[in-house]
Amino acid sequence: MKKPVADAGEKCPLWQKDVSKVCHTCPWYTLLRGKNPQSGAEVDDWGCAISWLPVLLIETSKEVRQGAAATESFRNEMVRLSTIEQPRIELRKIDSPTLIATPSS
Prior knowledge:
Blueprint: H1 19-22, E1 29-35, E2 42-48, H2 49-95
């Protein structure tokens, strides 16, 4: 995919030239597609990877929070199930005959 030429008017902080003259040649000029984590609006735009960092950091922290919430939910469910199963395990120990190992002569 060929990179489009950026709109004129802004100065690239790396090249110190107008973005319309340098961005399409820069390897950090990348396409970002998805949803903006703050507004929910669809994003399909070319821009400098450095300028995308704040948006990507917000999205990463959102995903980390969701992963932590899912892990906590799973843990809580396991704790709940273990409290239900623990009495059953104890009853099985009481009801089953205990085998005592004796040394053979």
